Amino acid sequence: QVQLVESGGGLVQAGGSLRLSCAASGRTFNNYAMGWFRQAPGKEREFVATISGNSGTTYYAHSVKGRFTISRDNAKNTAYLQMNSLKPEDTAVYYCAARNGPFATITLSAYNYWGQGTQVTVSS
User: Fold this and answer.
1) What's the CA dihedral at 93, 97, 103, 109 to 10 degrees?
2) 35 and 109 in contact (C-beta within 8 Å)?
3) CB 61 within 8 A of CB 39
4) CB contact set of 117 (below 8 Å; sequence gap of 6+)
5) Which of 38, 52, 77, 88 could pair covalently with 92 via S-S, beta carbons 3.0-4.6 A apart?
6) Do residues 71 and 84 lie in contact, with contact meaning Cβ atoms separated by under 8 Å?
7) What does residue 2 show for φ and ψ, rounded to 5 degrees?
8) Cross-strand bridge partners of residue 119
9) What are φ and ψ of residue 30, in 5° steps?
10) pLDDT tens digits for the chain (124 residues)?
């Protein structure tokens, strides 16, 4: 069982930056691929970014590519999402997720563990 706790959300003006963190319990963090997803009001949860267990592979949603960067520190059992050039349409609750196995995937249903979410609000 893996427990995930997100932090770092908040209110920011358009063009600003935020860094989300996801702290995971457990001793074999590098055995889990990590992902970030988001859900805006009235919309379905959508993929944002994912990273493999050894950080060798990353994938991004088209809408965030070039602005967001996913990373992880396996020694600290923590994944990160650096968000730059934020836009009002990035406003959502952001969730981190872990899947059994080190291979990154963009498929929401492939993730086994989810955090509680952190709100990101971008004002225009």
Assistant:
1) -80
2) no
3) no
4) 6, 39, 93, 94, 95
5) 38
6) no
7) -120, 130
8) 93
9) -70, -10
10) 899 999 999 999 999 999 999 999 987 999 999 999 999 999 999 999 999 999 899 999 999 999 999 999 999 999 999 999 999 999 999 999 999 999 999 999 999 999 999 999 999 9
